[in-house]
Amino acid sequence: MFVAYLRTFDRLGLRAIPMAADTGPIGGDMSHEFIILAETGESAVFCHRDLVDMPVPGDDIDYEGDLEPVISARTDLYAATDEKHDEAKFEAEVPADKRLSARGIEVGHIFFFGTKYSQSMGCVVQGPDGKDVALQMGSYGIGVSRLVGAIIEASHDDNGIVWPDAVAPFKVGLVNLKSGDAETDAACDALYAKLEAAGISVLYDDTDERAGAKFSNMDLIGLPWQLVVGPRGLKSGTVELKRRATGEKEELSPEAALAKIVG
User: Fold this and answer.
1) Is 246 left (phi over 0), alpha (psi -120 to 50) or beta?
2) Which end of the chain is more exposed for a tag (fewer CB within 10 A), N or C?
């Protein structure tokens, strides 16, 4: 679960740092909170700076194999929330240039109960030898409602949100620069239909706002792709495709733009 959480948050576009944490009244041990560093975080956190840049286990991770090296590479380095922080230990174990003190948002928490509850409740299963074995238990949580704020905190710029592809509310923002113009409306309707048919979610701006306002709104919303359609481009057979994360813009044929979005 430790490794699975690292990979889950990475797919969400987040770098989550596992930190030793208090289990609270529920008990258990091997407790780790997964923290996103953010200035608006509710908790003070302290860790070895190398944890921030440590690569996440890849797709080839073997969950049936020995994961201890992956886990110990992280747990051997100091990382703790304020409840578990030991300043003397922090200074003794972490070189001065590697000490990181920051604020963080907790987005997940895992800890192990062992047989603490299963034994007292008589919660057992029969093993291969026919003897009853108490269940091993754990608690695993992800703060789904916290993730929205954490993702925005971790992925934004001066113009607004930059949604990671995996969790964007829509993949494409389709901008009609001249709503009411028959040719532009028809082109947008065709693109919308083709994107939807390909399973691509689309937010269609066909309002009467000025172009500048539409561009600002789309940047603020922060969808991964912006597909801009206007009379001038259509005359030359092109639309504008913008990648929100990089700001890169391309003038492409509608077919080429669709192919790039669908991937």
Assistant:
1) alpha
2) C
* 42: confidence class by pLDDT, cuts 50, 70, 90: confident
Place of tokens 């108490």: 134
Determine the longest span between alpha carbons in the chain, in angstroms. Answer: 78
Question: pTM here?
Answer: 0.79
Cα dihedral across residues 177, 180, 186, 190: positive or negative: positive
The bridge status of strand 202-205 relative to strand 160-161 is: unpaired
- How many whole angstroms separate alpha carbon 208 and alpha carbon 19? 50
- Contact yes or no for 151/12 (Cβ under 8 A): yes
CA–CA separation, 69 and 89 (whole Å):
23
Q: Which stretches of 187-260 are assigned E, i.e. beta strand?
A: 202-205, 225-229, 239-243, 249-252
Q: Alpha-carbon distance 248 to 263, whole Å?
A: 17
Q: Can you read off the two tokens belonging to residue 152?
A: 């925005």
What sign results for the dihedral spanned by CA atoms 37, 39, 41, 45?
positive
Give the chain's end-to-end CA distance (angstroms, integer). Answer: 31
Check residue 42 and report its DSSP letter.
S
3-state secondary structure of 114: strand
